[in-house]
Amino acid sequence: xxxQEGDLRIDGDRLWESIxxxxxxxxxxxxxxxxxxxxxxxxxxxxxxxxxxxxxxARVFVxxxxxxxxxxxxxxxxxDPVMAGSHLDTQPTGGKFDGVLGVxxxxxxxxxxxxxxxxxxxxxxxxxxxxxxGTRFAPAMLASGVFAGVYDEAWAKARTxxxxxxxxxxxxxxxxxxxxPVGGRKPYAYFELHIEQGPIxxxxxxxxxxxxxxxxxxxxxxxxxxRESHTGSTPMAKRRNAGLGAARLTEVVDRIAWRNxxxxxxxxxxxxxYPNSRNIIPGRAVLTIDFRHKDKAVLDGMVAALRxxxxxxxxxxxxxxxxxxxxxxxxxxFDEACVGRVRDAAKRLGLSHRDIVxxxxxxxxxxxxxxxxxMVFCPCVDGLSHNEEEEITKEWAVNGASVLFAxxxxxxxxxxxxxxxxGLPSIHPPESGERTP
Length: 437
Ligand code: HGY
Ligand code: MN
Ligand code: MN
Known about the structure:
alpha+beta, 4-stranded antiparallel β-sheet, 12 helices, disordered C terminus, binds (2S)-amino(hydroxy)ethanoic acid, binds manganese (II) ion
């Protein structure tokens, strides 16, 4: 094989240019992206991704949840593939790298293998998971959750956005309701490259985060019901003000998180008041609560405390109360062998690295249930994400993609990787024998 003579390299310029071109689809208003799941912009991004995959000879399959799999055959096609990917959908004020780096980093792995005319033993599949963000259709990681058997497909497709449009209808509208049965493809292993979305790596000057765990998450949706009435003529003592109840509950969420410091986080990210008129006392308030902690018992304790305090507030204020759990996953512990492969790759490439717990959730959390899984983090500027000013350096992107390349290629049946004098990895010729991930 041609590559026996030469070294393989990640093409950093090509990766960076692909990220730049993808960022043009679904632009935000401050330089980032607003490419929410199953919008026309998501459809355009998917078509661009599909074209790029087909250009390098990968065959693209789409499952019934819109998950996209670009298959790059190995020398032994019958083997289960090593999957690598992330998501192309963004937050309404999203950045250019959250999710995109993982999908295009995996594309760069295939492009680099193709440049060298090399195929790994196992097939490699690049994945774009539908609706990772869960901002338009809750919960987050919805389609990877169906793939992993966590959510029922019909329930997922019935999830609606704020305008009452369903996931299933929108998936069909953008033309990505695929034929592949969701969950039908069996990954041998899964790797996901992602920006840290937190400040640790940059503050410590570390190149690579070796993600060992992801903190657990619970999402609640709380509806408080009072009574609309005139803001001018309703005496204070006669009000049933759902908006005030929501404000008090928002304070409680913050207090519960601080009570479980330093690791706990608690946020009310969305609050809708009805009828939202300046001279009507809100009769209804709907708020979302996002609790996270790496210890399951603590996370469950935070949710229990919230329920208790919400009951007390509703009781005291004469409000109706409904609490719905709309998302949850226990703290995730990734596969030791895959994590070790990420760590060894960073070491061989001469990149500084440290074990890290992910604050954010990822599709890898669910895929870890059906295949050995690990993640690679690169730093991001000021740890900022879910903000249009999200930024990384090209070097960080190349380092992360290089580690992904080495870990994926080795797991798929290629030898170890080492840094060349250009500061980029080279992949040695394949070694014989099957290696477990
Ligand atoms: O919410 C999360 O952690 C992910 O970014 N969807
Ligand atoms: Mn993400
Ligand atoms: Mn995100």
